[in-house]
Amino acid sequence: MKTTFGDLCRFDPCYSFRVKLGLHKNMQLTTEISILEILNSNGIEDAVWALRTQEYKSYCLFLADVAQSVLHIFEKACPGDMRVRNLIAGIRRWHAGDISDEQLADYAAAVYAAAYDGYYATAAGYAGVAGYYATAAGYAAADYAAAAYASAYAVDASASARATARREQWNKIEGLLRKHLGRRMNMKKK
Questions:
Q1: Are 173 and 66 in contact (CB under 8 A)?
Q2: Are residues 146 and 64 in the same domain?
């Protein structure tokens, strides 16, 4: 999966992203760079951010994997509630062309309701946040999702435990991204 410096600049990367990648105003905007190169130079959070330059359906498929990795948080707080699980499956079906944009929007609307229900049904509200960001995964918001998911792991923990949980979640997301990039490479070879 490749992008260009110009595509990255269209999304207005933050200063630290630009510095780590060596982006500057005299740079050739048509120069290609792979998501893997961004991962290796800037780290997982910037690599996930850079995915917004990719084909939207592929990006959403990766985000469904991210949401799947934390689905247990929502399901623990809301046993038997299948709305988030159904959205993740819906994203995969939408990617395959089996359902329409409108059908996917119906799944997303149900999950927004689940997020609202979950937020007010739990003392700390983190299950609702996880449900909300599972929906956001369908709408391309992994950078915010990872922080919320990591917080959900450490709802009653110290700041250091929350930081550790956040780091662990980003490590999981990095593994998911590497797996996703590997699948994309194998699809291109066929």
A1: yes
A2: yes
